[in-house]
Amino acid sequence: MKSDIVIIGGGAAGLLAAYGAVKALPSGSRARITILEKMPRPGRKILFTGKGRCNITNMKEWNDFSRHIRTNPNFVKPAFYNFTPENMIGFLESNGLETVIERGDRAFPYSHRASDVLDTIVEAVLRSGVTLLTEREVEDIKPGFEIRCTNGETYECSKLIIATGGLSYPMTGSTGDGYRWAGFFGHQVTPCFPSLTALVPKGYKVIEKVDEEMKGHIDRGTPMTGSGEALQGAKLKNVNLTVTYDGSVTETEFGDIDFTDGGIEGPIGFQVSRKCVKTMMNGGRVSFSLDLKPGVPITELTDRVKTIWNDIKNDPRTRQAKDGRGINGKEMYRILLGKLMPWDLIPGFQAWNPDILRTTVKKTARFHSPQRRFYDVDLELLAKTLKDWKFEIIGYVGYERCVITAGGVSSDEVTAKTMESKLQQGLYFCGEVLDMDCDTGGYNLQCAFSTGYLAGQSAAKALTPQG
Ligand SMILES: Cc1cc2nc3c(=O)[nH]c(=O)nc-3n(C[C@H](O)[C@H](O)[C@H](O)COP(=O)(O)OP(=O)(O)OC[C@H]3O[C@@H](n4cnc5c(N)ncnc54)[C@H](O)[C@@H]3O)c2cc1C
């Protein structure tokens, strides 16, 4: 089958490439644009974005936006200005999707349903006359271009756009196929690694020994320890996370973290994950220190902990509880923790810091009476731990559940103003297949949309005029 432009991959970048191509064609053009998508439906990954809400883009101006691009922002700049976040929102709204801007300039569909974003994009692309073929897995490309699918179909085109994404969430169809073809056409592929991913503390998962071969990769499905289970589900707001790389270099991030079945993630967990993964892959060590009370100096916090403890001790309800026998130190400790941290963190905090509550077993004076347990809370150690809760990081969750793939087709050999290969005329790259990754906040999708739109537009402009 012949098509003027073939786009491999019907994800965020591929769909916008098709739309960009249509927009660049002169009116009345009969040029054919075909998307080949291997999955039964296009844009499957979009359904998972923003925890099902889809953080479509980020409305920051370029100077602020570009700070969130981790690799060579200058490469993305022409694509960004050619198709800005405002253009993306305009495209969605003109096709009937209402959007809303939330904290941090992040744009979401008003319905908070990622499926609405995907449906709007797909319907707009189909209405514009693009041929979207699903269950077409491309397995081979020959120069010229001749494209062969696993079902035996072949396609010929003069302009080919590779929009196959990276390696993250392979069940959405992104299995890194584009890297192979880039290599075939002589492109350098910067080594890939998972980013925006969960980091696994020592003692969180049941692991005898971290496999050196795997360079720190710990599958998300690895069973959790009891201590891991106790922490899982806790969400911490407004904490400081200080990261130590190889025992010295540190960075501190302020914000929110989540303990999940994978490990430590959430906004600031993700923020530091790129460097952590890279360090561990290179054989380096990573450790975390969590400050749950960043606004309070240690001396003030120690005093505050002691004051609350005395208040609990002297509270008449403490003495009257349990039929007038009073409550024991262990229960008082839980009450104290409840005044210092969210309730859902208490089991995990206790499991990870068992030394704060000291237990002594004593025989009572009375003959035949059972042994009694006495509890003593180390208030100084508690305050210290609240300010400096240490975790040794031994691994990270891999492509099976990371948000983005760092690395990819080197931007050195792709023209930033067109997305065309510098090595093979008529070949274009866009989206996550490129060596381009960003922070969370809508930046990754916008980069896929912008580079996709530009690749499609450039390919269409480069077609020889036809009837
Ligand atoms: C859980 C999760 C949440 C995320 N949340 C957000 C968010 O809220 N905001 C944000 O900005 N970013 C988010 N991202 C990142 C964002 O989804 C990606 O940056 C973006 O989807 C990349 O788009 P892409 O088109 O380059 O690649 P993909 O979306 O991966 O699309 C590639 C497409 O190519 C197809 N394909 C691959 N190989 C072949 C082949 N051989 N033949 C035919 N087709 C093929 C695949 O099936 C797939 O449909 C999230 C990512 C994940 C995993």
Q: What brief labels describe this structure?
A:
467 residues; alpha+beta; FAD/NAD(P)-binding domain; 2 domains; six-stranded antiparallel sheet; five-stranded parallel sheet; 14 helices; 21 strands; 32% helix; binds flavin-adenine dinucleotide
Helix content: 25-40%
The class by helix and strand makeup works out as alpha+beta
* Main β sheet profile: 6 strands, antiparallel
CATH topology of the largest domain: FAD/NAD(P)-binding domain
What is the second-level CATH architecture of the largest domain? 3-Layer(bba) Sandwich
CATH class of the largest domain: Alpha Beta
What is the overall number of helices?
Answer: 14
**What would CATH call the homologous superfamily of the largest domain?**
FAD/NAD(P)-binding domain
What integer is the average pLDDT? 93
What portion of residues belong to β-strands? 15-25%
Bound molecules: flavin-adenine dinucleotide
Q: Note the overall shape.
A: elongated
Q: From the structure provided, what is the oligomeric state, counting identical versus distinct chains?
A: single chain
The count of β-strands is 21
Protein described:
This protein has a 6-stranded antiparallel beta sheet with strand order 12-19-16-13-14-15. It has a 5-stranded parallel beta sheet with strand order 6-2-1-10-21, with helices on one face. The protein is elongated, with a radius of gyration of 27 Å. It contains 14 helices and 21 strands. With 467 residues, it is an alpha+beta fold. 32% of the residues lie in helices and 23% in strands. The chain has helices spanning 12-24, 62-66, 73-82, 85-94, 114-127, 177-184, 226-231, 266-281, 298-314, 316-320, 329-338, 346-352, 379-387, 443-461, and strands spanning 5-8, 33-36, 57-58, 99-102, 106-109, 131-133, 138-142, 146-149, 154-156, 159-162, 189-195, 199-201, 235-245, 249-259, 264-265, 286-291, 357-363, 371-377, 389-396, 404-409, 427-429. It starts with a strand and ends in a 6-residue tail after the last helix. The chain folds into 2 domains: 5-193 and 404-461, FAD/NAD(P)-binding domain; 298-387, no CATH class. Flavin-adenine dinucleotide binds next to helix 1 and helix 14.
